[in-house]
Predict the structure.
Amino acid sequence: MASWVLSECVLRPLPQVSPIPRTRIAANPIKLQTLQKNNFADLGFGSTRISSGRFRSWGVKVSAPLKVASTEEDEAERMRVNGVNGDEEEIEFDPGSLPPFKLGDVRAAIPKHCWVKDPWRSMSYVVRDVLVVFGLAAAAVYMNKWYVWPLYWVAQGTMFWALFVLGHDCGHGSFSNNPKLNSVVGHLLHSSILVPYHGWRISHRTHHQNHGHVENDESWHPLSERIYRTLDKTTKMLRFTLPFPLLAYPFYLWNRSPGKTGSHFEPSSDLFVPNEKKDVITSTVCWIAMAALLVGLSFVIGPIQLLKLYGIPYWVFVMWLDLVTYLHHHGHEDKLPWYRGKEWSYLRGGLTTLDRDYGLINNIHHDIGTHVVHHLFPQIPHYYLVEATEAAKPVFGKYYREPKKSGPLPFHLLGSFITSLKKDHYVSDSGDVVYYQTDTELSSK
């Protein structure tokens, strides 16, 4: 049985999700940007690259004479409009505008060594975190003081979250180049904190492949106004009122988000394709085995002790996961766009994600707050994300939003989280570039 489980733990690609047909331009107001003069495709020009690297237009599909700007003027205009590598911007930056760079430009800016995966280094983080987990549990049991347990719950819950991040890296394949090693380590780490590895891995890959897409994104995606208006008061309260959004993850694993159906535990769920059935069964079996182990431990050490050692830290871990994943896509002081139809692209969707600074927690949870580059290139190991981000910033320009500097502990992010819950409720049912809107009735409560 064990050999079958391990042999089946292999990553398989998820079929590409088809974009939703384009409807019309968003009703939500977006500031018009100056037409970029070097966008030959939009004007119907044919263009050719000559040896100097400049573009010249050789055909014009209109009868009126046109003045074609030089490459230098093109670049200056592009900087002026979008604030990329420019000191000043004369026109206010529009985050929903087409970026003046391509995904390949970002990739080329990242040093080659940042793409190299070192399985020994990755395993060293696993060993470190596992030793800390067992050390914290042993210390709490040994001291067994009322004032020690709350400290233990916060610390151990944070370490459970760190274990999740390492399993997350296994799911992306950034842990190592060996799919079986990734799968075995990922199952051990995620099953230990009651996460179905393959079920979550596949849905999370869907999230990355469709980030920033209103309908096709998988986690913390916006609700359309139509779906939002169908929610009863209880559901709205659970989604937008503390502390309930911080406790959502286990329920998401079973039922997904409003407007979506299926479960991470069911092979027949529409999250998965038929050839992933064995993967999902394997992970579900591992999850059941861990749950059975916890039940057995409750008879050995008692249910109260199990609650203190595992149960409460588990819910702290859940709160970390919900807080961090939500703030990667919400809570910026400026409104960020969401896309549909032909306006969506992998690059534009990825640029709507946010980096966050967690102070001392950055190292503990393996720099998961360095999220923009991770979303665009999930193959990069976590220990190179900071360096890769610094290299990519000159390319991103204004499309990169510098995170607010944190103190030793990221208490400031709770304010961003609460503010977003009061403001970011739904998006328009129509439009290919949309922004969150506020239900004034809900926000006033």
